[in-house]
Amino acid sequence: MNNKEQTDEAFRKNPFGKGMIYKTGDLGYINGENEIIFCGRKDSQIKLNGQRIELAEIENAMSGIDKVLLAVVIARKNNEGSQILCAFYSGEKKENRQIRNELGKKLPRYMIPQIITHLDEMPLTSSGKIDRFSLPEVDLENTLSDREFIEAKTENELMVCSKFSEILHISPVSMDTDFFFSGGSSIDLLLFLSDERFKNISASEFIANPTPAGVCSLIENKNIDKYDYLQQLFVPERPENALVLFPYAGGNAESYSELIPELRKQMPDTAVYFVRFLHSIEECRAASKEILDVGKVCDLYFYAHCIGDTVAMQIIDFVEEDGKSVKQLIVGANIPPEKPFRYNWWHIVPDFILKRILIKAGSRIGELDKSRSSEKLGSFRKDSDFFIDFFKSRNRENSSQIFVILNKNDIFTRNYKKAAKNWQKYTANEVFVRYIESDSHYFQSRNSEALAKMIAETILNKGRDPR
User: Fold this and answer.
1) What is the pLDDT of residues 54-65, one digit of tens each?
2) Burial class (CB in 10 A: 0-12, 13-18, 19+), 15
3) Residue 148: how many CB atoms within 10 A of its CB?
4) Using CA atoms, how far apart are residues 24 and 293, in angstroms rounded to an integer?
5) Closest CA to 108 of 438, 361, 457, 451
6) What gap in Å lies between CA 358 and CA 324, rounded to an integer?
7) Residues 403, 434 contacting (CB under 8 angstroms)
8) What contacts 174, CB < 8 A, 6 or more positions away?
9) How far is CA 297 from the centre of its chain?
10) Which of 73, 154, 183, 346 is the most exposed place for a label (fewest CB within 10 A)?
11) Any residues with CB less than 8 A from the CB of 178 and at least 6 apart, and which?
């Protein structure tokens, strides 16, 4: 009461007009439609494994579980310095597996706490608010205490569990420990696969089998993929649709490690496949044959991020020549050039400048070591060659409907207002354009939940504009 210092801190001169404004601590921004978008509280937002997490959102989801009275979520660091999400709740005691299952219906996997603790009474302050500083200490080194531990026994099992422990900073590791649920990011996946012992495992195979048991199965060749180009990521027993993912320049299957769990949650009856960036007409023709095999029993949909759309469009040509159609090409973060490029200027841009541009666009390439970073830059240039050559000679339409998803803040699509016009030249069907709220060109990773919802809406609407 009557505290001038606190009053001056909370009430500020209005920079937008007359009078004063109150500093609430809420986070938000004004979108392109002049609407204020609420993003939660400043004091409860953290960044974990490259993802922005609103702790209050997790707390609200937990509080919505039947017979849970109060819930609070905090981030604590373990002995390795890694942040662990710790949830505390009061009310009826439940199995942690049950709580995680309930949260999994509302939240992406990276927001589900690794540690869940039941309290007979929630510590409160004198004003009746939850006292976060009085929450009990918990074992941050063992995130498996709430389920049956499956011990590694064979040499391969011990070796894989040891690598999981090294990268994820958790111990012990059970054979059913999920790499991504335990905090693993796409960068951690690259680190895992850079180990010589796992050189024969592709990123897409790992994503489909992200536990020590799954990795050991791959090592022992128990999961044999019948395709050379089409990689299975998730195939339900009776799929209704098939979604094929294509990467951006320099990208691979790990680029979709955050998106795939969201797609599975949004579309449990849709099979998800991946095709790496291809560089020749011959490869695209061979890949189309494998996709046609899947299309015998499913409607086909493609999602391509950035210039991966050129590979997707080339394959669509071959699919149509064989009498099948791709119901919809969903393009993220790319617009065709108004005029073909004569030369690939990325080849004369020095590595340090190209790296700086990609980081500004939202890439996490800065987190890689020098060797992996150089490798990624080389792949980026090679992949962009295909893009430039493709549009030099492209003068035909295909029959696929095109659904474009863009971020208005993307440095690579600043001409977003021309998206519909530029894309209409390449399809005899409709072009839909939608916008995603993001601060990154790579929103397939940074905004995976929102993107998965957009993709699911159009597929479940059988290619019609979900609006």
Assistant:
1) 898 899 999 999
2) exposed
3) 8
4) 57
5) 451
6) 37
7) yes
8) 144, 147, 148, 149, 150, 151, 161, 212
9) 28
10) 154
11) 210, 211
| Cα dihedral sign, 332-211-65-60 | negative
Place of tokens 């504009």: 465
Q: Which residues of 60-99 are buried (b: 16+ CB within 10 A; e: fewer)?
A: ebbeebeebebbbbbeeebeeebbbbbbbbbbeebebeeb
Which residues of the chain carry a pLDDT beneath 70?
1-10, 15-17, 22-44, 49-51, 80, 109, 141-148, 221-226, 462-467
**Within 10 Å of residue 300's Cβ, how many Cβ atoms?**
23
Q: Where are the beta strands (DSSP E) in 280-418?
A: 299-305, 326-332, 401-406
CA 136, CA 66: separation in Å to the nearest integer? 24
| 141-187 pLDDT tens trace | 665 555 567 889 888 899 999 999 888 887 888 888 888 777 777 78
Task: Pinpoint the alpha helices (H) of 220-350.
Answer: 259-266, 281-294, 308-321
172 vs 151: CA distance, rounded Å: 9
User: How far is residue 286's CA from residue 247's CA, in Å, rounded to a whole number?
Assistant: 18
Q: 115 is written with which tokens?
A: 């540690």
Pair type for strands 270-275 and 241-246: parallel
Query: What's phi and psi for 460, nearest 5 deg?
Result: -70, -20
186-193 and 155-168 helices cross at what angle (nearest 10)? Answer: 140
CB 203 within 8 A of CB 252: yes
CA distance 339 to 362: 26
CB 197 within 8 Å of CB 162 = no
Please list the helix, strand and coil fractions of the chain in percent, rounded to the nearest 5, in that order: 40, 20, 40
